Amino acid sequence: MEPEVSIVTPTYNERENVPIFVKELDEVMCKHNIPYELIIVDDNSPDGTAEVARQQKPKCGKIKVIVRKNERGLASAVIRGINEASSKYVIVMDIDLQHPPSVVPKILEKLKEGYGLVVASRYAKGGGIENWSKTRLLISKGATLLARIFVPKSSLTTDPMSGFFGLRKDILEGVELSPRGYKILLEILAKAKVKKVADVPYVFRNRYAGESKLGGKVMLDYVLHLIKLARETGELRRMFVFSLIGLTGIFINEGTLYLAYEVLELKSLGYLGLAIGGFLGFEASVIYNFLLHERITFADRIKELKTSKLKRFVHYEIASVSGLVAQLVFLLGLTALGMNYLLANFIGILAGLAIRYTYSTTKAWGYS
Ligand code: GDD
Ligand code: MN
Question: 368: closest CA among 144, 187, 191, 162?
């Protein structure tokens, strides 16, 4: 029987996990009556993973074992597996049982409903992580925030770093995925022609046997990968344009203050006049920046967004005020710590810019 879904599983030294994974997966698929193919992409593991994989005899699906002799790496193994899949629906998951097979039918169901990409999420309602320390959770959350900034479409899912997801193959047509990339789902979110993404919750379990292959160097790799994706997809350029427009806003701000203070004669009110002028200047620059961000910085996204222009403006206002507050906090805080006030203010300006941009790209003009 033709498989209804292809399941792609990369492996490296996982011989102990293979039989139990195949057994659990097969039970689930038999129970739901889903004919499937399991594609195991093994990088010639010295522990004989491929040998063990070939010996498995699932009842409701067939197994294809691909052994790569000259390549190593999780992401490129996944891409290879997707390319070999014979079904139009592909589900990618790990073999160590941290990704529970019971979630597979739910992912397939969503794919059949018409979602091009379905993410099994640890952070969706009902999902979770077994036994993670506070530190590891914090790192994961921090990494997710970075993803939201550098790959804005990552906001379409609650767990853009998941290694457990399903896709309809046609969303990858004409898309060049980089095998150097480490988080393959991010790569897909950044580049694929996908509009509808669904999340399915799952609990990330402890490993059944063996240990994680993703060690310390992975964090640096991750940040480099994000920057590379941002460059390829024009997000770095967007950051630059955003900053430049912000810079020109200074003239609007100063000009408005001058007009209010001198021409409208707020001067006569003394400090109160100065405060009102300062406020008007700030507000004028916010409006000016907003209009340019609508027309230039984020023009390409406007059609795809669900938020109204008014809502975007309110968000941008919040972003700007937060940025200003951050700037003042840095100015006062760092000066109090003994730093030169001009340097402190400069750091404050950069921090304010970072906050304005983050809030703008994820909220005001964000996809979620
Ligand atoms: N072919 C191949 N080549 N497979 C590999 C390689 C490799 O170089 N490195 C790892 N794998 C396989 C492992 O055998 C396992 O099946 C899967 O990829 C995941 O590797 P783990 O070492 O278990 O990763 P993890 O548990 O730390 O992280 C996983 O889960 C996270 C949460 O979903 C990964 O999938 C992460 O990408 C994901 O964020
Ligand atoms: Mn794992």
Answer: 144
